[in-house]
């Protein structure tokens, strides 16, 4: 009886947590199908309306923002950052985990030390560098600073340390493999779950980034999704939240599809090592 009661309590708590997590997305989708007047109604409208197509039409024909173009800009930036992050972080992680070279410990400590520095402190010097390079309103202004991160290197280093046996690497060396061959033939096939986990986290971070793109992307042609959401409303007197929520649904859909496609690998990467002795 105690086990059944405890299990029931756990299930109830899990359902509550799921409800709290899902409700904001449900409410966002409901508002996207309503008008500005219906959103302010009391009691609030908690079921879907019939204005979704009209709201989408306003988004696609908006005078301030070419929303499809902004989604294309964001996709280019997010995909470029994700690919470079996976490649460079896995290469550095493999080097720290399975190669021996002078200064390895100090360099790893230095990389980890950068995690202690708030990202906001680097905005001004980073902006000055981008300005000197004349990269304002250019994809490179957003892509290059995000190509690799200390978290990505550390995450890959820890995963490779746990999942790629040193004996297998030494066997590859005996067979005449060079470092890049060891990485490509031994490490890469083993760390697919880590790729999925880091890839999803990186893509989500790049897709949802607002602060840095709002600083370096000034023209309407180079806006990203998160910046464009603030410029959708054409009214000077009030903000049409139904329009913003409809655009938010469109902006959230790619993230949902990516997670749905890679969720097994993502969960495997997050939980790897949890059941190992």
Automatic annotation (TrEMBL):
GO biological process annotation, one example: transmembrane transport
For this protein, the record's InterPro entries field holds:
MetI-like, MetI-like_sf
Q: Does the keyword Transmembrane apply?
A: yes
Show where the ABC transmembrane type-1 domain sits: 71-262
Keyword Transmembrane in the entry? The reply is: yes
A Pfam family this chain is assigned to: BPD_transp_1
| UniProt keyword list | Cell membrane, Membrane, Transmembrane, Transmembrane helix, Transport
Gene Ontology CC annotations of this record = plasma membrane
Q: How does it sit in the membrane?
A: Multi-pass membrane protein
What SUPFAM superfamilies does the record point to? MetI-like (SSF161098)
* Signal sequence range: none
Transmembrane domains' residue ranges: 9-27, 75-96, 108-130, 142-160, 180-204, 242-262
In which compartments does the protein localize? Answer: Cell membrane
UniProt lists the family membership as follows: Belongs to the binding-protein-dependent transport system permease family.
Q: What is this protein called?
A: Cellobiose transport system permease protein
Q: Which organism is this entry from?
A: Paenibacillus algorifonticola
